[in-house]
Known about the structure:
By secondary structure, the protein is mainly alpha-helical. Among the domains are: 1-30; 33-100, Orthogonal Bundle (Arc Repressor Mutant, subunit A), CATH 1.10.10.10. The protein has helices spanning 3-25, 35-47, 52-59, 63-75, 97-118, 123-139, and strands at residues 79-83, 91-95. A two-stranded antiparallel ribbon has the order 1-2. A hairpin with a 7-residue loop joins strand 1 and strand 2. Helix 3 (52-59) crosses helix 4 (63-75). The radius of gyration is 18 Å and the shape is globular.
Amino acid sequence: MDKNLFFQAIISFIGTVHANTHSLMKDARSNEITPQQHSILEYVFFSKAVTTSQVADCLNISLPNASRELKKLSRLELIVKETDEKDRRKTTISLSEKGQNLMLLTFERIQKNFWEQAGQLPEDEMQLIISSMNVLEKKVFF
């Protein structure tokens, strides 16, 4: 297969995912946080524990902006910061119980939006989709 065609198909797929993310996120995010703060919480949720530098890098924002947003999330008691015993300069960020619950509620809303958008999927199609996502995760989005 032509590698350029393969790459174009991947880019098209990513574009479709991004376009559909908006409709899935509709009314799912809590109004108590900004979209950028939500992105930070989502990143921490899936990464479990991160540093300020990792947040800045992932969201493509400056270190001062990441620090400021993390400070706001800390004040809202949505994250927990722990200082490394060996290197006091390093701080690890994870979700607090309140932050975890907020994200779980958000994912419930996203799931509701997903099923409204997807409708009924037969069992065999759901299995095929899961298999396809597993292949993508192992071979493309690793």
